[in-house]
Write a structure and sequence with these properties.
Blueprint (H helix, E strand, L loop, with lengths): L15 H4 L4 E7 L7 E7 L2 H7 L5 E9 L2 E8 L11 H9 L5 H5 L5 E6 L5 E2 L3 H9 L4 E6 L2
Parallel strand pairs: 2-7
Antiparallel strand pairs: 1-2, 1-5, 3-4, 4-5, 5-6
Length: 149
């Protein structure tokens, strides 16, 4: 994990509304398969809903950082290496654009990657516009919001 902002970050959506799965956020979903589009997806905040977005694996909140003052998190399948998931070169390009160029980090980007934002309470929120802009700047054609899986 890189750059974890501090303790208390546990399960996504710690408030009662989020635990009930009533809150919705927009995430940036980056599939490893280049045949699948990079897209903004509307998701509920239950851990199972976020997990479904990345193919059903256990969530690992592997990167916490900020872009132009807005926090963001890269979520990955915790078992990506054991499952032999393919390298996600598009997520690696975005990560490098955002300033994360450590080779071991970039090599570990496997399978589908979900990028969300986080607020001052470290709760998940929609992906910051600055991250979406960075994706566009590095050549990722981002489709508009669609319903999550």
């Amino acid at each position: 994990m890189i750059g974890r902002p501090g303790p208390g970050r546990g399960v996504p959506g710690s408030s009662a509304v989020r635990r009930l799965g009533l809150a919705t956020v927009v995430g940036l979903l980056i599939p490893a398969d280049r045949g699948e589009p990079v897209a903004l997806v509307a998701l509920g905040l239950r851990a199972s809903q976020l997990s479904d977005a990345i193919g059903g694996g256990l969530l690992e909140d592997a990167l916490y950082a900020d872009c132009e003052g807005a926090g963001y998190t890269f979520y990955l399948d915790e078992q990506r290496v054991a499952k032999g998931l393919p390298h996600n070169d598009r997520a690696a390009v975005l990560s490098a654009r955002l300033g994360h160029v450590d080779r071991s980090w970039l090599a570990g980007l496997r399978g589908e990657v979900l990028v969300l934002g986080y607020d001052e309470h470290l709760d998940d929120v929609s992906v910051p516009p600055s991250v979406v802009d960075a994706a566009a700047c590095c050549g990722l054609a981002v489709q508009r919001v669609r319903e999550g899986r």
